[in-house]
Amino acid sequence: MSDASLFPIHFFDCDLFCKECGRLRKFKIFSQEKYDKNYGKSEIPPNKPLFCKCEACENFVIYTTDEFAELQENANSGLCKIWGTANLEADDMVFHPENGVCIVDAVDRVYDSLPRLTLKNEEGKKIEIQAENLPDENAGHSPGTLYRLFPQDAENSRIGDPFYNTETGVAGKVIGLEFNGGQRIIIEFKSGEIEKYHCENNRNYLTDEILEQNAKWRCRDFDFFPNLQISSKSKILSVNCLVPDFKSACELDKTISSIPQVRCFIMHTDVEKTDIRRSDIYMELLKNCINICSCQIEFRNQEVYIAGFYSAKDIQKQIYRALAKFPIKKINLGIKLRPEIKTVKTINESERFVRISKLGKDFHIDGWVRSRREKKRTKLKSFFSTLSLRIENHLLVIKE
What is the pTM (predicted TM-score) of this model? Predict the structure, then answer.
């Protein structure tokens, strides 16, 4: 189903239910790209695949970023349904440790903080609480702790969501999900009992076979369709294909991501290899008037890495458009917006292109020349244009 080499980055560790071990185990979670949890949870994109491997038996399962409660969108924008999907609204039912099963009477959202809630218990008494983040298992119950009702509110749960069983009066949390023939959640209760619960879904649940057929039908008009291999397991599409260029890779990605009821897709595309150099990429950017200050370009494993600073709007779209024809499968942008960049001087000749920019107190030389001697000479000449020794030379040497 999945090649572990497609997930090179260790993201975090988590306790999950292991199907092979039949119990809760420590899992290592790997991602395809780096997500820094310190950036803010709102910057971790949803529906991205994560490779989860059991440390005991090395069995693996694929989950997605939005299936973990701790990786959900930033709750400051509005309290999520007990740390799950959608916002908590009036008339929703929750369990509060001190007041039992309650109805949400009102939600008072405060900018840049978690909202205050007004709950109404079974006797009609109103209770005001300040919503808090995920409850700390070791700290006990706090006044702002809320739980999902089990089984009434099981369908939209995420791994790590706290639950309260209204029939047995026992609390627990979600430790796993299953999507084979239907959605199931795996819950570990405080008693240590582990239970799998089948979620009733009113909408038509598409099978892996139908999802696979749908994906192939949507891709049937691509010129590279004969090279396309698609399979589905647990509502995860695995796509392998040889494509001619970056534009084709983007079109395939857009088409697969538009298929409904797919949890996520794992894309493994190879691009038809032709000779391409770092200088080819840079010259194409200049040709399309894409100006990046302190521009750094790397090209490895058919992926392009571009870093630097920019001041013009929509430059990301311009980069994608300019490089669409190249045999690359991914463009990674590390560019940052700096509106204060000022162009001091530009030289555009047949043998060289030089642009001197000022960013803060520093000056940057970007462009290309034909020799290392010319690169050193250009930095010296730049002193007379800037009257500054704080000059960084990023000129690219392109030999004939």
Answer: 0.74
Token digits of residue 31: 């991602």
Residue 22 tokens, joined: 């039949």
Distance CA 57, CA 138 (A): 28
**Positive or negative CA dihedral for 155, 158, 162, 168?**
positive
* H/E stretch holding 257: helix 246-257
- The residue among 113 and 66 whose pLDDT is bigger is 66
Q: Where in the chain is the domain with CATH 3.30.1340.30?
A: 208-271
User: Which tokens hold the place of 312?
Assistant: 């013009």
List pLDDT tens digits, range 244-284.
888 999 999 999 999 988 999 999 888 887 788 888 999 99
Average pLDDT estimate for 364-373: 90
Give the pLDDT of residue 266. Answer: 93
Residue 97 CA to residue 143 CA, distance in Å, equals 8
In the block, tokens 């099978």 appear at: 207
Alpha-carbon distances of 174 from 185, 198, 263, rounded to whole Å:
7, 13, 18
Fold exhibited by the domain 208-271: Histidine-containing Protein; Chain: A; (3.30.1340)
Name 349's bridge partners: 352
**Apex CA 241: angle with CA 238 and CA 246, to 5°?**
115
CA angle in degrees (0–180, nearest 5) for 88-49-158: 30
Mean pLDDT of 139-148: 65
**8 Å CB contact between 132 and 151:** no
Peptide bond into 151 cis (omega under 30): yes
Q: Are 266 and 333 in contact (CB under 8 A)?
A: no
In order, the DSSP letters of 307-325 are: EEEE-STTHHHHHHHHTTT
Q: Looking at the domain covering 278-337, what would its CATH class be?
A: alpha beta
